[in-house]
Amino acid sequence: MRPHDMGTLFDEVAARGTHTTVHLDRPFDILPAGYGPGVDFTVPQLAGLVREAAGWLYEAGARRGERVAVVKRNHYDYALLACAAVRIGAVPALLSGHLPDDVLEVLLKRLDPAVLVTDRVPPVGLARRVLSLGPPVPGALTLDDVRGARVPAPRRRHDDEPLVVNHTSGTTGVPKLVVHTTRTIVHRLARFEAVRWPVIGVRRDDVVANAGSYAHGRAFCWTASVFCLAPRKVVLLSDPGSAAPVLARHRPTVLEALPSAYVRWQPLTTRPDHPFREVRLFVSTFDAMHPPAIRAMLHASRRRRPLWMQGWGQTETGPLTFRFLTRRALDRSPDARDLGRPVPGRTRLRVVDPVTLTPVPRGHSGLVLARTAARCAGYVGEQDRWHAKTSGPWWNTGDLGVLTRGGSVRLLDREVDAVPGLSCLRVEDLVEDRLPEVVECVVLGTPGRPPIPVLVTSGPLDPAAWRQAVADLPPMADPHLMAWDDVPRTATGKVRRLDLLTRLAGTAETHGSGRWT
User: Is 344 exposed, middle or buried (0-12, 13-18, 19+ CB in 10 A)?
Assistant: First the structure.
C-alpha cells in the first residue's frame, strides 16, 4: 500500500486487516481520562478517533479550504488532528506548544484560522472559534461541546492544493509557516519511504519507535509511510524522559528520535537493562549528530551490524541527503558533519559563492543550494521571503558547506551563525569528542570579540583539561557552563542560538548576513 489521502489513511490501513498495535507513553490529550484504550490502540481504533475528531472540527466551524490551527503539548494526537482536518477538506496548521506567546500571536495572525485547537489560553481574537483542550476559556468550546457530532463524508482535494502547514524550527527568530501539498509531502516524500527497502525498510516484524516533535512536518510524512508498511508495533513517545519504562516493555528494532533525545539517552546506554539492545536501525533527522551519541547508541545494540541513518534536510524540502554509519565506519571516519550524498534521482545539490551566488568548485565552501520536486509551495504571509530563497528550481538552504569530490556534503555552519576562520559545528564536535563530561557544546560568534563556547556538562569541568582540549583550535573566550534546561531551545531540541547569544553577549549581531534564514 502507498499513501495517497491523509484524511482516510488510517481507514485504508485498517481495511487491509493490519496487525499493527500502537503504544503510547501517556494517554492522548484529546481523550477524556479513563477512555477505554488508554495507552494501547489498534489501527481501527485510531481510524475511529480520526473520524470522531473530524466531526468535532466540523461542528466547531471548520470548512473546506479553511485553516485549523493546533497548538498543544507534544504528543502524537497532533497527527490525528491533522488527518481529521484533512478529512473534512480543511488545512491543518500545526504549531508547537513550545512557542512563546508573542511568537504564537504572530503566527496565528498570519494563519487567520477558522478553528484553533489548544490547551493554553490563546490571544483573543486570532481565531473564529477556539476548541479548548485545557482549562475553560471564556467564549471557547470544549471537547464535551462537540463530542458525538456527525462525521461528515471525506472531502478530496487537488494534489497541488495546500494540504498541511508546519513551521520551521525557529532557531534564528520567528519560525516560517511552510505550506506543503499532497504532491510535495505525500507523493514525493512519504511514498518514497513507504517501500520495503533492503536493510533500511520497515519490516512486518519490526517494533518501530518514535520520539519526535509531532507538530513538525517529519511526523506527518512519517505517519503516512510507517503505517502503510504495517510493522508489528508502533511506539510513540511524547517526552524522551519517558523512554526507559516504555521501551523496556516494547523493545524497538527501529528507533527514530530527535538528536537532542539521543543525547539525553546516552546515560541509559551504560545501564545493564537499557532498552536499546534490539535496535537494528537508528534514525536521526532535523540536525546533525555529534559523534559521542551515535557511538554510544551503536555500541549499545546487541545486533551484529546495527546501522545509523542520518538524514539532512529542511521543513521546506524534506530529506536532501542520507548518510549511513556502522560502528566500524564511525571509528574510521568520525566526522558527523559529513552528511552523505544527495538522494539518488530525487535531489541535486550545488554550492555557490555567498556574495555572487555563482557556483564554486568541488571542495570549496559556500552556500548550499538544493533542487528537489518536494520543495514546499510557499510561506504563509511571507511569500516574498519564499521567493527570495528560490532561484528557478534551486532552493537556498541558508547553510554553508562543502560539496566534496566524492559527492558528499560536509556541513560547516548556518550562514547566519558563521564565524570567520572556523566552523562552529566542527569545534563543537571536537570538544564533545575530547571531553566526555561535555554533554553539549555550542559555539557562538559576534563581531569584535572571540567566539563564546557554551558547555552543558555532566559534572565539574577541569580547567586544565579544557585548555588541553582546545589548544590546537582557534582562540575562544572562556567557556560558559549552563544546565541543559537553561539553554533556550526549540521544540526539536535545537539551541536558539541568537537568543543565547543575546543573553550572554547582550547583542544578536552575528558575522553572517542572515539573508536566507
Answer: exposed
Task: Determine the Cα–Cα distance for residues 20 and 13; give it in Å rounded to an integer.
Answer: 10
d(CA 425, CA 430): 9
Q: Angle 372-377-380 (CA atoms, 0-180°, nearest 5)?
A: 140
As a whole number of angstroms, the distance between CA 202 and CA 184 comes to 22
Neighbours of 415 (CB within 10 A): 24
pTM recorded for the entire structure: 0.93
Asked whether residue 441 falls in the same domain as residue 408, the answer is no
Per-residue H/E/C for 320-368:
EEEEEECHHHHHHCCCCCECCEECCCCEEEEEECCCCCCECCCCCEEEE
Q: Which residue type occupies 468?
A: Q
- Compute the distance between CA of residue 357 and CA of residue 360 in angstroms, rounded to an integer: 9
Whether 57 and 95 map to the same domain: the answer is yes
Q: Is 331 helix (H, G, I), strand (E, B) or coil?
A: helix
Q: Are residues 141 and 223 in the same domain?
A: no
120 phi/psi in degrees, rounded to 5:
-125, 170
Per-residue pLDDT of the chain (517 residues; tens, 9 = 90+): 777 799 999 999 999 999 999 999 999 999 987 777 899 999 999 999 999 999 999 999 999 999 999 999 999 999 999 999 999 999 999 999 999 999 999 999 999 999 999 999 888 889 999 999 988 888 999 999 999 999 999 999 999 999 999 999 876 678 999 999 999 999 999 999 999 999 999 999 999 999 999 999 999 999 999 999 999 999 999 999 999 999 999 999 999 999 989 999 999 999 999 999 999 999 998 777 778 889 999 999 999 999 999 888 999 999 999 889 999 888 776 566 788 899 888 999 999 999 899 999 999 999 999 999 999 999 999 999 999 999 999 999 999 999 998 888 998 888 888 899 889 988 998 998 899 999 899 999 999 999 999 999 988 999 999 999 999 999 999 999 999 989 998 877 788 888 999 999 998 888 877 776 7
Q: What is the CA radius of gyration of the chain?
A: 23
The Cα–Cα gap between 378 and 362 comes to 30
Cβ neighbors of 420 (< 8 A, separation 6 or more) are 511
Q: Which domain holds residue 209?
A: 186-414
Residue 484, domain member (yes or no):
yes
Q: In a 10 Å sphere around its CB, with 0-12 CB exposed, 13-18 middle and 19+ buried, how is residue 187 labelled?
A: middle
Q: How many CA atoms lie within 13 A of 378 on its CB side?
A: 10
CATH classification of the domain holding 146? 3.40.50.980
Angstrom distance (rounded) from CA 200 to CA 308 = 10
d(CA 304, CA 327): 10
Q: Quick check: 311 and 321 in contact, CB under 8 A? A: yes
